[in-house]
């Protein structure tokens, strides 16, 4: 805990914007080059503005030379105490000419490294200290006011230059921060996409595994051929689930440099195979896939884009998984219609079991979970929409519309 004396010494530093937490890091090579250039500039300006010492007291001449050399050497401290250095050089510069070079560098440093409210106050102090200087050492050619206006113009030019440099640095920092934020957001979106694909695929595979395993459990006396088919289906589904999981984990681990192209993704043409796989698992699924009509009779019907077909496939896949989970044994109807320009409509309906129908007093959708949320996000990202409701006849209907431009 700081004593009252320590706080008294700390107060000026806080007011000047030079607190304890602003100690600069070790100078880089670029910092050494810039500091050396500014030190030589301060020395050059001091030599160029050296006054005529004829008729001046010897003590004044010695003091000016000593203070001028110390001010140039103090330029190396501009990163640690820029405001203090600027105020000191401005105050001494009201009497001594050789301080001007270090004062120029100090004012520029404050304009670059301090906010406008501090830098503007320091610039105003420089203008105030110029008043006694022009009266002590007037120029016979331009007069007192002419010299004062010249100092004001030079001070404002240096101050404006520092403000421009500061604004450019802040712009670069802001652009870098935006780029970093955009990169993080892109990585997050990619992981969400992978997680969505992982859920859609693995939920489908695992539900088929559960269905076949349940059939074996409740039919211990089934014929050997049926048991063999169920075991083969379990082995195939488990193998495919592991392969999908391995690929997703591989995508998460790899870097962009060693990224490999993904395996071909399912499209609308793979829907019959998906339905057949569900039928083999014991589901009663009816597929109504309406081919889009060609706009010109002589031409063939246009095929949906791969991204559109993949989204439709995933929606049907998740809908079948939900049907197996919440309405086992119920017949499922899948209908896919659409045309280019009108969009693609996917509708999956299945009767709701009586028990689930009675439990739906709290929620209108029986068994709604993260799968439906993921489907809604998928449809929204594709520019479409997805809704699900319980029809009057007691059937659960999931309907999605996807744009087809």
Automatic annotation (TrEMBL):
Q: Which SUPFAM superfamilies match?
A: ATPase domain of HSP90 chaperone/DNA topoisomerase II/histidine kinase (SSF55874)
Top-level taxon: Bacteria
What InterPro entries would the database entry show?
Answer: DUF7134, HATPase_C_sf, Sensor_HK_TwoCompSys, Sig_transdc_His_kin_sub3_dim/P
Q: Which reaction does it catalyse?
A: ATP + protein L-histidine = ADP + protein N-phospho-L-histidine
Domain DUF7134 stretches: 29-169
UniProt keyword list? ATP-binding, Kinase, Membrane, Nucleotide-binding, Phosphoprotein, Transferase, Transmembrane, Transmembrane helix, Two-component regulatory system
Q: Which Pfam families match?
A: DUF7134, HisKA_3
This enzyme's EC code(s): 2.7.13.3
- Which ranges does the record mark as transmembrane? 31-48, 83-111, 118-136, 142-164
In what residue span(s) does the Signal transduction histidine kinase subgroup 3 dimerisation and phosphoacceptor domain sit? Answer: 190-255
* Single GO term (MF): kinase activity
What name appears for this protein in its UniProt entry? histidine kinase
